[in-house]
Amino acid sequence: MPAKSSKWISGSNKYLTIGTKLLEVLERDDVKPHVQAASDGLISWAQTRRKEHAASGRKLDPLGAVTSRVGHQRLERRLDELFAVVSEFDAVRPELAEELRTTEADLRRAVTVTAQLSATNRLRARRDIYKRLDVIEERLVEAILPDDSSPSDPMPG
Hints:
Layout: H1 4-10, H2 20-27, H3 32-36, H4 40-56, H5 72-83, H6 86-92, H7 94-114, H8 119-144
Helix pairs in contact: 2-7, 2-8, 4-8, 5-7, 5-8, 6-7, 7-8
């Protein structure tokens, strides 16, 4: 049976690909107008997320302050915050809502798997999940509030 570290090495970037299809859907020209005409609840959520990101300094650029926001409970809270608005996307674009639900399930499964890893690998895996959450959250905010020209994600997909 392979050691936990060899399992981690073989799939070390898999968390960075979660939600790729969601991000592709957000980029489609036929989806953008629907998202930009979002409900007041979605717009309020996006404005709140943008303010919180700015206040906490949580940006996509450096790895930086990841250590100040690690831990299973914090990761669960971030997932809850991000996916609390999924039902509002049903009215905006059902296809997008379905992709959000799929992404949520994948991320929650990844969080559960990280609990089984050794401490070092668990931190590395969770850091990747945090990065992915940042990407997904920022792209959703940019799609809902496109008027702000903030820097894009340097990571693929």
